[in-house]
Amino acid sequence: MSQVSIVIPTLNEAASLERTLRQLTLLHPPAKEVIVVDGGSEDETIAIAKQSTESFDHKLNMQVLCCERRGRSIQMNHGALVATGDIICFLHADTWVPDDLIAVIEKTLAEPQVACGGFISLMVGSYHTRWGISLHNYLKTYYAPLLFRPRLFFKGLRLLFGDQVMFCRRTDFWYCGAFDEALPIMEDGDLCLKLVQKGRISLVNRIVQSSDRRVARWGSWKATAIYLYIGILWGIGVDANYLKQFYQDIR
Q1: Which residues touch 245 (CB under 8 Å, ≥6 apart)?
Q2: Is the pTM above the cut of 0.85?
Q3: pLDDT recorded at residue 224
Q4: Beta-ladder partners of 6
Q5: Looking at beta carbons, which pairs linking 143-147 to residues 24 or more positions away fall under 8 Å?
Q6: Positions of the chain with pLDDT lower than 50, given as ranges
Q7: Can you give the pLDDT at residue 113?
Q8: Which of 44, 101, 124, 222 is the residue whose CA sits 20 to 30 A from 136?
Q9: Which domains does the chain have, with CATH numbers?
Q10: What integer pLDDT is reported at residue 248 of this predicted model?
Q11: 168-198: string of b/e by CB count within 10 Å (b at 16+)?
Q12: CB–CB of 232/246 below 8 Å?
C-alpha cells in the first residue's frame, strides 16, 4: 500500500480544485490519503472539496480541514500534522500531476541519500504553454543555489518551488522544522535549505503542469522580472515579508 499523503493548501481555488482532485482519482497506485487544508476561502472551494469527498469516496481517502489561520506555510504544516503516510507530498490546487505520481515519489525516496524531490513544472493556460518561463524556472532550480549557496549546491541543494510538487519523508520534514510559518512566500525555498542537511534535493525528470494565471495577469516580461527580482533579493538575504508586496495573490 502507498505510504504517500498528499496535502493541498487552498484559498479561493474553486476554478482549479475539482480538476486537480479528479486527476488524483486516476493515480496508480493511489495515494494513502488526500488532505485539503483551506485557509478561509470566500468562494465555493470548501463546497467543491466536500462534494468531491462524497463523489470520489471510492477512489480517494480524502478529508477536508479548515485552518484557523491563513497562510500556505501554516496550512501545509497543519495538513502534515494530520498526515499518516511516511511521505508527504505538497500539491498546489492549480497543479496537475501524472497518474504514476506515487510510484515516482516512492522510487525517488527509495534512495537514502535523497531527502526531498520535486518535478519539472510546465506552466500552461487554456490556450498557451509558457515555454520561456517554464524553461527559466527549470534553470533556476540549478543556477539559484549555485550562485547564492555554492557550498550547499555541491552538497546537493536544488531550489524547488511549490508548483514543482515537493515531497519528502515525514520524519525529515519535522526534524528540519517544517515550513517556517513566519514566511508569507519562499517557504518552499527555505525548506530546501533545511532539508539539504538530511540529503540531496532531487529534481525528477518528469513534468507536472501548473496554471499560468499569474503570468496571464502580469504578462511574460513583467512576470519574469518579478520572479528574478524576488529571487535575487531573497538569495542575498532580504526578508520574505518585504518581498511579499511584489507577489500578489492571484486567483
Answers
A1: none
A2: yes
A3: 84
A4: 34, 89
A5: 144/231, 144/235, 145/192, 147/235
A6: none
A7: 97
A8: 101
A9: 4-246 (3.90.550.10)
A10: 66
A11: bbbebbeebebbebebbbbbbbbbbbbbbeb
A12: no
